[in-house]
Design a protein that fits this description.
By secondary structure, the protein is mainly α. It has a domain of about 150 residues: Oligopeptidase f, N-terminal domain (Butyryl-CoA Dehydrogenase, subunit A, domain 3, Up-down Bundle), CATH 1.20.140. Helix content is about 65%, strand content about 5%. The protein contains 25 helices and five strands. It has a three-stranded mixed β-sheet, sandwiched between helices. The chain has a two-stranded antiparallel sheet with strand order 1-2. Strand 1 and strand 2 form a beta hairpin. Helix 4 packs antiparallel against helix 8 and helix 19 packs across helix 20.
Length: about 600
C-alpha cells in the first residue's frame, strides 16, 4: 500500500477570519445585533393557528431562527477549536465567555417558541404545522419543542435563569476548563524531569514503572486543584438540582433522558443487561495480567500494550499516515461513500492531531453548519488507541455529513445516537484489522484493543454513571468535600469493575480529571457512550449478515437520528425494540465471544513461548 502524507494540523481560516482579525469582530458584532433583533421579535409571536397573518409572522421568525442558530453554532465551534489548540491563550477563553454571554438571547427565543407552541390546542397546532413548507419540514423540531415546554419555569423565571447561568452554571464550567487546561505535570522521561500537559501524559507505555510514575505524577497534579474542582462540580450539580425541583422533574435523570430522546425503561434495561453479563470481562483482565506477568491489573495498567513475547513479534508503532490509510481503507470496504468522505476530511485539513504541548486534553468533533463541514481535535500518539480515536471522531463527522442537507434543526441529534455513529466507525476499523491480521499475536493485540474498549464502555463509563447518580442523590442534601467525592468514585469503580482491579489500584480522583463531569450544556454526559457502543456493535453484527443494502440502511438510521426519538429511530430503520433486553444481549454476546477468543489465543501463545 502506498502511504500518503496527511496533514496533522487543521485549517480554520477557510471557515472564518481568525479571532484576532478585525473582520471577525465585525462579523460577530453584526451577528449579535441580528440575534437581539430576533429575540425582540420572538416576544410578540402571535397565537399558533392556521390564520394567514399568524403563519406569515411565524414563518419569518422561523426562517431567521434557522440562520441565527446555524451562525451561533459556527462561532461557538470556531472559538472551541482555537481554545483547544492553544489552551493557554486567554483571548480565546475570553471569546468563549463572550459567546456564552449571548446564550440568554438564544434562550429567550427558545422560550418564546416553546411557550407559543405549548399554549396552542392540538387541532390548532396540527393545522399550523401543515400551513407552510418551512413549518412542515421542521415538524419534528416543533413537536419536541412543544413537548419540552411542559417542563419550563414561568417565562420571566426562564429569562432570569438564562441570565444567571452565564456567570453561574456555565461560569463554573469555564473555570474548570481554565484551571485544567493550564495544569502542568512533571514526569520523568529518559532520566530527566520534563513538563507536560495532562493530555500528553499517557498510560500506554510498555514499561509498568513508567505507567505507574505517570499515574502518580498526574494524580499529584490533579490533587492540587481538587478542592476547586469540588466547588465547581458541587455548584454545577446544585444549580441543576435546584432547577429540576422548581420545574417538577421526577429526579436528576429525567433531564438527561429527555435530552437523549430516550425512555427510562431503555436506560434501565441497558444497564441491567450489562450488569448481568459484564463479569466475563474479568476473564480478559485476569488473562491480560498473566500475559504481563503481574497478579492483577491496576487502574494505570488498563491501557498498557501487550508484552513483546519471544517469537510473537513487536507491538505496532502506528504512524499517523499509516493510521489514516488504514481507516480510509476500512471505511471504503464498508461503503465507498464512507471511505471517500474520510479521505476528503483528512486531506482537506479537517483534523488537528499534532502531538505538541499547550493543547487541551481529550478529543472532539465539532460542526460548522453554514460551511457544512466539521473539524476534529485530538492528540495523536502513534498508538492503536489514537487510531481508534481518529476513526471515532471521523464517524461523528460522517454523521454530520449525511445530515448536511437537512434543515438546521433536524441536523441536531442526541448524544446517544451520535455516539452510535462514532463507535460504529471504530467497529468497522476493528473488524477489518482483525480480518487482515498476519499472525496470532497481531490478532491478540487487536482483540486486546477491542476488549479494552469494552472495559471502557461497560465498566469505566458505568463507574462514571454510578458516581454521578450517587453524587446527585447526596448533593440534594448538601455539598460534598473532595474526600467524600473520592470515596464515591472508588465505590463506583469497585462496583462497575466487579472488583476486577487490584486493591490500591483504583483512581479515586478520577472525578477531578474527567472533563465530562464539568460540561454544563449536557447533564450526565457519559452514559450515551455506552448506549452508542452497544447499539453500534449490534448493528454492525447485523450488517455483516445483511448484504450490500446495509450501508444504505445505516445511512437511513443516521438521517432518522435528527427527526425521531431514539427508540423510534432504531425501530423504524433496524427493527429493534431497545426497551427489551434481547438486542442488548446480542451485543454483549459478541463481547463474550471476543473474550473467549482472547483467552484461548493467549493460552496458545503462552504455551508456545514457554516451550520455546
Amino acid at each position: 500500500m502506498t502511504i500518503s502524507t496527511f496533514p496533522q494540523t487543521w485549517d480554520l481560516i477557510s471557515l472564518a477570519p481568525a479571532p484576532a482579525d478585525p473582520q471577525f469582530r465585525q462579523q460577530l458584532d453584526l451577528f449579535k445585533v441580528r440575534l437581539k433583533k430576533l429575540a425582540a421579535a420572538s416576544n410578540s409571536l402571535p397565537a399558533v393557528n392556521a390564520q394567514p397573518q399568524n403563519i406569515a409572522q411565524w414563518v419569518e421568525v422561523m426562517t431567521e431562527y434557522e440562520f441565527v442558530e446555524a451562525t451561533a453554532a459556527d462561532f461557538r465551534a470556531l472559538a472551541d477549536c482555537y481554545a483547544a489548540a492553544d489552551a493557554e491563550n486567554k483571548a480565546y477563553r475570553q471569546l468563549q465567555a463572550e459567546l456564552a454571554s449571548i446564550t440568554p438571547d438564544r434562550e429567550q427565543i427558545a422560550t418564546n417558541f416553546e411557550f407559543g407552541l405549548r399554549d396552542a390546542s392540538e387541532a390548532d397546532f396540527l393545522a399550523f404545522v401543515g400551513a407552510a413548507a418551512v413549518l412542515q419540514r421542521n415538524q419534528y423540531f416543533l413537536v419536541t419543542r412543544r413537548r419540552n415546554a411542559e417542563f419550563r419555569l414561568p417565562k420571566s423565571q426562564e429569562m432570569l435563569a438564562a441570565d444567571l447561568a452565564v456567570d453561574g452554571l456555565h461560569g463554573w464550567g469555564r473555570l474548570y476548563d481554565r484551571i485544567s487546561s493550564s495544569l502542568k505535570v512533571q514526569v520523568q522521561e529518559k532520566g530527566q524531569l520534563v513538563t507536560r500537559s495532562p493530555g500528553q501524559v499517557q498510560f500506554d507505555s510498555a514499561q509498568r514503572t513508567v505507567r505507574e510514575n505517570n499515574f502518580y505524577a498526574l494524580d499529584g497534579a490533579w490533587s492540587t486543584i481538587a478542592d476547586t474542582c469540588a466547588d465547581a462540580i458541587n455548584h454545577i450539580a446544585g444549580t441543576r438540582l435546584t432547577t429540576y425541583r422548581h420545574i417538577g422533574l421526577q429526579d436528576h435523570l429525567e433531564a438527561p433522558l429527555r435530552a437523549n430522546r430516550m425512555t427510562r425503561e431503555t436506560l434501565d434495561t441497558m444497564w441491567s443487561t450489562i450488569s448481568a453479563n459484564k463479569s466475563v470481562l474479568n476473564q480478559y483482565l485476569t488473562k491480560k495480567a498473566e500475559l504481563m506477568g503481574i497478579d492483577q491489573l491496576a487502574w494505570y495498567d488498563q491501557w498498557a500494550p501487550l508484552p513483546q513475547l519471544p517469537g510473537a513479534g513487536n507491538a505496532d508503532d502506528i504512524s499517523y499516515d499509516q493510521a489514516c490509510e488504514w481507516i480510509v481503507d476500512a471505511f471504503q470496504t464498508f461503503s465507498p461513500e464512507f471511505g471517500d468522505f474520510a479521505r476528503m476530511s483528512l486531506n482537506d485539513r479537517w483534523v488537528e492531531a499534532e502531538n505538541r504541548s499547550g493543547k487541551q486534553q481529550g478529543g472532539f468533533c465539532t460542526g460548522f453548519p453554514t460551511a457544512r463541514q466539521s473539524r476534529i481535535f485530538m492528540t495523536y500518539t502513534n498508538s492503536a488507541d489514537s487510531m481508534s480515536t481518529l476513526a471515532h471522531e471521523l464517524g461523528h463527522a460522517y454523521h454530520s455529513w449525511v445530515l448536511r442537507d437537512e434543515p438546521v434543526f433536524l441536523q441536531d441529534y442526541p448524544m446517544n445516537l451520535a455516539e452510535t455513529a462514532s463507535t460504529f466507525a471504530e467497529a468497522v476499523l476493528g473488524e477489518q484489522r482483525l480480518k487482515r491480521a498476519k499472525s496470532d499475536y497481531e490478532r491478540l493485540q487487536i482483540l486486546d484493543g477491542m476488549l479494552g474498549d469494552a472495559v471502557a464502555f461497560l465498566m469505566n463509563i458505568h463507574a462514571r454513571f454510578l458516581f454521578e447518580d450517587a453524587f446527585h442523590q447526596q448533593r440534594s442534601q448538601g455539598e460534598l468535600t473532595a474526600d467524600q467525592l473520592n470515596q464515591l468514585m472508588e465505590q463506583a469503580q469497585r462496583e462497575a469493575y466487579v472488583n476486577g482491579l487490584a486493591d490500591g489500584g483504583w483512581n479515586p480522583r478520577f472525578w477531578v480529571s474527567k472533563l465530562h463531569f464539568y460540561i454544563t450544556s449536557v447533564p450526565f454526559y457519559n452514559f450515551p457512550y455506552t448506549f452508542g457502543y452497544l447499539l453500534s456493535l449490534g448493528i454492525y453484527a447485523i450488517g455483516k449478515e445483511s448484504g450490500a443494502d446495509f450501508p444504505q440502511s445505516y445511512r437511513q438510521l443516521l438521517l432518522a437520528t435528527g427527526c425521531k426519538d431514539a427508540e423510534e429511530a432504531v425501530q423504524s430503520t433496524m427493527g429493534f425494540d431497545l426497551r427489551k433486553p434481547d438486542f442488548w444481549q446480542k451485543s454483549l454476546t459478541i463481547i463474550a465471544d471476543r473474550v473467549h477468543q482472547f483467552v484461548t489465543l493467549a493460552d496458545e501463545i503462552l504455551a508456545k513461548t514457554r516451550s520455546a
